[in-house]
Every structure is written in C-alpha cells, then in structure tokens.
Amino acid sequence: VQLQASGGGLVQPGESLTLSCVGSGFTLERYGIGWFRQVPGKEREWVSCMGTRDGTTYYADSAKGRFTIPRDNAKNTMYLQMNSLKPEDTANYYCAVNSLGLGVWDPREFDYWGQGTQVTVSS
C-alpha cells in the first residue's frame, strides 16, 4: 500500500492550491480518508476527513469554508482543495487512509500515510 502526495508549492495569500494523493495497492473507495498538516516543532494537526458510509466530510475550524476534500475513486485519488490561503496554512500536508472506512480525526486511526507535501503561503 502506498500513498503518493503531490501538488504543494509556494503561493501568495488569497490564492488557491489543490493537493493530490494517489493510492496504490488498495482500493481507495473502501477506505476512510483524511488530511493532516504539520509545522516543525508542532504536533500533526487534523484538517479534514471523510468516511465511506455516507461520504460526509468533516473539517477543522481552520479549514471550514475554504477547504474541500473530493475523492475520485476511479482514479484511486483523493484531493485537498484549498482556497483563500493564509500564511498560517503554511505546513507540510499529509494524506492518510484508514481501513475501517471511518471519517475520523485521530491520526492513530489511520493505517497508511503519504510522504507529505510542503505548502508555503507567503507574499
């Protein structure tokens, strides 16, 4: 099982960015998905998640109204669409999946992780 994250980069405040995470070795449709981020010296922070039961998505307060996490099961790919980016969104972003198909925010519930992709928001 592998998750390959990509799409990070340097953007200006107010701009948008979409991260991708391609899964291999498993069927994404059967897994709950999540996005997390981490700044050096701080704990990994939950951003958003989606379970498989009804597709309900959950967002951290910092992400509500600005981020969405669509998934394309046919491509075995999940996304983190980020709009109106702020400097405080600067972090290394990680995708993760859990085999229980849960939409949860506890990183301990996730079985597999991508390698992280850096997002820097700066003028």
Summarize the structure.
The protein is an all-beta fold and 123 residues long.
Main features:
123 residues; mainly beta; 7-stranded mixed β-sheet; 12 strands; globular
* Average of the residue pLDDT scores: 95
Overall SS class: mainly beta
How much helix, percentage-wise, in residues? Answer: under 10%
Distance between the termini: 37 Å
Low-confidence stretches: none
What is the percentage of strand-forming residues?
A: over 45%
User: The biggest beta sheet, please?
Assistant: 7 strands, mixed
Number of helical segments with 4 or more residues: 0
Rg computed from alpha carbons, rounded to a whole number of angstroms:
13 Å
Beta-strand segment tally = 12
Provide the succession of SSEs. EEEEEEEEEEEE
Shape, principal axes of CA atoms = globular
Description:
With 123 residues, the protein is mainly beta. Helix content is 0%, strand content 46%. It contains no helices and twelve strands. It has strands spanning 2-6, 9-11, 17-24, 32-38, 45-50, 57-59, 67-68, 71-72, 77-82, 91-98, 112-113, 117-121. The strands form two sheets. Strands 2, 4, 5, 6, 10, 11 and 12 form a seven-stranded mixed β-sheet that branches. It is globular, with a radius of gyration of 13 Å. It starts with a strand and ends with a strand. The model has no long low-confidence stretch (mean pLDDT 95).
